[in-house]
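pinging the channel bc i need a second pair of eyes. not urgent but kinda urgent?? the chain im working w is below, pasted from the shared doc
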Amino acid sequence: MQDLKVKTYEVPEKLSKYEASIKKTIQISNEIYFKAGETLPWDSKIGGCPYLLSKDDYPLNKDMQPMMFLVQLNLSDIHGLPELPDKGLLQFFIEDDEMFGMDENVVVRYIEALPEDENKCLAEIPYTINRENAPYYNEGKMSFEAVEMIYSSTLESYEEVLGEEELNEEESDALYDEAAVSGCRVGGYPYFVQHDYGFDPKSEFLLLQLDCDDEVGMMFGDAGTAQFIISREDLKKKDFSKVDYDWQCC
């Protein structure tokens, strides 16, 4: 994992007197950007074919039906997040259904050893997937920017954590807007469209958040976001068998 420069967060002037309490909540995230087009097997990507050396590596659901490949993260592209392994791939698979796998099992595969040889990789997914069930239209490569971000105002505990009860109405509205940060990211804080179901940044880690993106035609429902969340204890053990997946829309 590269140790590159992190974009610093600057507190707006209208909230400057609360700078200390705001900055105490800062975490690093890697904001994700997409470029539509064909990808290599080991790229950080959405869609296309994941890194596969054998048909047997492709996950099937409990009914022995193929799951839908969603996203692949090459961890060497990500920086500023020491919680993650410093190399290898994370692959995300959801159920192939019209609800994008909501309330169904999700599979996150970690591949540590990564020979970069296209001749050894499968060129396409070895099963028929219903592309109409995908929450995106175009295959695309990911790039990442490490940034500082403050506590999300979509979390239930944000008023307590940021001391929002001390603010007047104008300041409160300004802080809420400042801290309601949507977008695609790894790490940092999630953005919940409807409600927080109990995310605890001390014990949980945002493994991936996906939001609307025009470049690859991504959307979950009606302008929704999807989150993949793992316990920090499981992440430390590189155990990705109990990742929580959910998406919410307007």
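so The radius of gyration is 19 Å. and The longest strand covers residues 27-36. — does that match what u expected or am i reading it wrong
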